């Protein structure tokens, strides 16, 4: 067997360590199944890592060192892989960006902003400059292009199914002029109805105390790996992969969905807000 065949380790940091992992595994005479025994991961997940398409998580790096007797090599270098990121992407979001390409389902809570892949260029610009007012025009352009490339998450028929809970404030506290806000909200409704990859719900501002009274949160589930949760602030983000903790948060997300409006009523509310802005009227707050 030609070890590492078809893998170019010079392409990226993840590809380099992925190729090394495959070489060591095959040198030890271990099949994918044999190597993964005792871990929570599937063969497709490992194959993606070996081809540099996924970053190796810390627990799998530790598993590799135990199985292959590599004296902590993969664990020590796991940080290099974690830091490797794509252009125009914040370091703390790079791993999430990669993981969402393999997700089977995405559940999201957004208390103040429209989800990134649904943001149109004008909206992206406003968000980027609000948190990074000194960015050059080139840097802003790169951010816009990077975010718009993720539109496939809601428009591709092979994209993961998405469930979105959005706060009413996103509709009634506009961050754009009325015409641009109308276009942005109409875009959400159009993508939702046309592609049917996402289900939106609106949480009303008078819903009282509810789970996730904090920053944006996302859950990603996979066919071949444990689910993860990601929560984000303005300049930082955190991945949570502890199964018990993710499970606890997931139950709370279920309660959040129960507190929000039904999907069709939510979609009509988004469409009505878009129409109001289009006609120069500020959408009413719902009581």
UniProtKB/TrEMBL annotation:
Coiled coil: none annotated. It holds the Pfam family DUF5753. SUPFAM superfamilies: lambda repressor-like DNA-binding domains (SSF47413). InterPro entries: Cro/C1-type_HTH (IPR001387), DUF5753 (IPR043917), Lambda_DNA-bd_dom_sf (IPR010982). Residues 93-272 form the DUF5753 domain. CDD domains: HTH_XRE. This is Helix-turn-helix transcriptional regulator.
């Amino acid at each position: 067997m030609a070890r590492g065949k078809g893998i170019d380790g010079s392409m990226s940091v993840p590809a380099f360590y992925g190729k090394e992992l495959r070489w060591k595994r095959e040198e030890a005479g271990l099949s994918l199944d044999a190597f993964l025994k005792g871990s929570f991961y599937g063969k497709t997940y490992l194959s993606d890592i070996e081809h540099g398409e996924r970053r190796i998580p810390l627990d799998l790096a530790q598993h590799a060192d135990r199985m292959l007797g590599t004296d902590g090599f993969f664990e020590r270098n796991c940080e290099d892989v974690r830091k490797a990121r794509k252009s125009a992407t914040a370091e703390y979001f790079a791993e999430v960006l990669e993981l969402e390409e393999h997700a089977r389902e995405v559940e999201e809570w957004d208390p103040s902003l429209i989800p990134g892949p649904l943001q149109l260029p004008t909206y992206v610009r406003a968000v980027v400059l609000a948190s990074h007012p000194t960015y050059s025009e080139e840097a802003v352009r790169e951010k816009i292009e990077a975010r718009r490339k993720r539109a496939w998450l809601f428009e591709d028929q092979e994209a993961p199914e998405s469930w979105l809970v959005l706060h009413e404030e996103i509709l009634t506290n506009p961050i754009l002029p009325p015409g641009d806000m109308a276009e942005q909200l109409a875009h959400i409704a159009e993508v939702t109805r046309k592609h049917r990859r996402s289900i939106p719900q609106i949480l009303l501002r008078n819903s009282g105390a509810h789970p996730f009274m904090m920053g944006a949160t996302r859950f990603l589930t996979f066919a071949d790996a444990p689910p993860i949760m990601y929560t984000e602030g303005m300049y930082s983000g955190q991945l949570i992969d502890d199964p018990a903790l993710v499970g606890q948060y997931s139950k709370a997300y279920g309660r959040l969905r129960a507190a929000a409006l039904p999907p069709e009523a939510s979609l009509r509310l988004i469409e009505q807000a878009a129409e109001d802005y289009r006609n120069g009227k500020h959408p009413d707050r719902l009581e």
